[in-house]
């Protein structure tokens, strides 16, 4: 859809038009287009194409000019996509005076970019070219983000449905680690669009590689803005301060997609055919070539504890307090969590009342010399006392204790106090030794090189 985009412009009443991308239509056409500036998105045919207006506020609209009219069956999805892009560009298009006020910074720090400044600088850097090359747009955008202090540096990535196709770097110091940065970004993609900041001090297993990269390049954090897995789109991964403005980076990606729409994977069929032939030739050559020197094979994998003890719930109850969290060391018998069961406490109160009644009945029978009734009441009291002991034991079991020495690797979060937990649900998992089991996934070309008995290093 963005391949047919000719221009994007902003209308701010009264009658103030600003070009975001491309060129403005003439005055007569603008007067007609202004009629489509409504409270809801609307579309109007313009020449051989179409203009879609998207409201940003009560007096501001973005107009998207397409060179072709989308099929009727696709119009709803096109308008929904343009609404998403408009929300991103809203941070970057010029608004009222408050959008253009200078931003205060600490002495010696780079000035922060304003909402309108980035797009104006990008237009200046591109020299007014109507159809700039993607590489020019991406590198110019990265340079501006670095110059304004939004990031220390990083990479823009053109993602296909399942993997990264190409990338652009802010500077050469990241070139030797480009493949590693791309792999980290691909590993963090999910079924939904994702934006996150990983501090250099982070210890979570999922983010460990990103934290190590941030430390390696001397940055406080590593930031990611990633498209959903299974969809084609632009993404960002780079380095900067802890308080990276993810919303600004997302808006900048939307701006890049508008100014230089990435080509759909299908439009590069010839290039992929050539690449496939080259890879096929390389694979055939690898089959026939002898490899007399030692081979280093790398693979990704998942490490799990080899010796694991799971502590489960003995009955339905509500979480009262959680005393451990992942990473804590515990010894057998340490209290992990306290639970409460109103149902058990009601049962206990009922049985204690029954015990009182049976005791009084036995005393009355004994006072009236009804010895047989006294014996019956005494036996019933024994039964009730047994039930009270059983209920007390069930209540005591709701104080969950460690069943072995080790380190907690999973536990119910302490932030969900009061949550209902069912019988058999996991309360915590204890790793009882340092032994780990690693499941590796090898590339198809590398799999034939792996043989039983090979050793390696995990990091």
Question: What are the main properties of this structure?
Answer:
459 residues, alpha+beta, Beta-Lactamase, 3 domains
Overall CATH class of the largest domain: Alpha Beta
Tally of individual helices: 11
Give a short account of the largest sheet: 5 strands, antiparallel
Unreliably modeled segments: 96-111
Can you give a write-up of this model?
- This protein has 459 residues and is α+β, with helices and mostly antiparallel strands.
- The chain folds into 3 domains: 1-91, Beta-Lactamase (2-Layer Sandwich), CATH 3.30.450; 130-265, 2-Layer Sandwich (Beta-Lactamase); 314-423, no CATH class.
- Helices cover 35% and strands 25% of the residues.
- The chain contains 11 helices and 20 strands.
- The protein has helices spanning 27-34, 72-89, 117-126, 134-147, 178-187, 208-216, 246-259, 269-288, 342-367, 371-396, 444-447; strands at 5-12, 16-21, 42-46, 49-57, 60-66, 153-159, 164-169, 194-199, 221-226, 233-240, 300-305, 308-312, 317-322, 329-330, 335-340, 399-401, 406-411, 420-421, 426-431, 436-441.
- The strands form 5 sheets. A 5-stranded antiparallel β-sheet has the order 2-1-5-4-3, with helices on both faces. A 5-stranded antiparallel β-sheet has the order 7-6-10-9-8, sandwiched between helices. Strands 12-19-17-14 form a 4-stranded antiparallel β-sheet, with no helix packed on it.
- Strand 1 and strand 2 (16-21) form a beta hairpin.
- Helix 2 packs across helix 7 (246-259).
- The radius of gyration is 33 Å and the shape is elongated.
- The relative contact order is 0.08.
- The model is unreliable at 96-111 (pLDDT under 50).
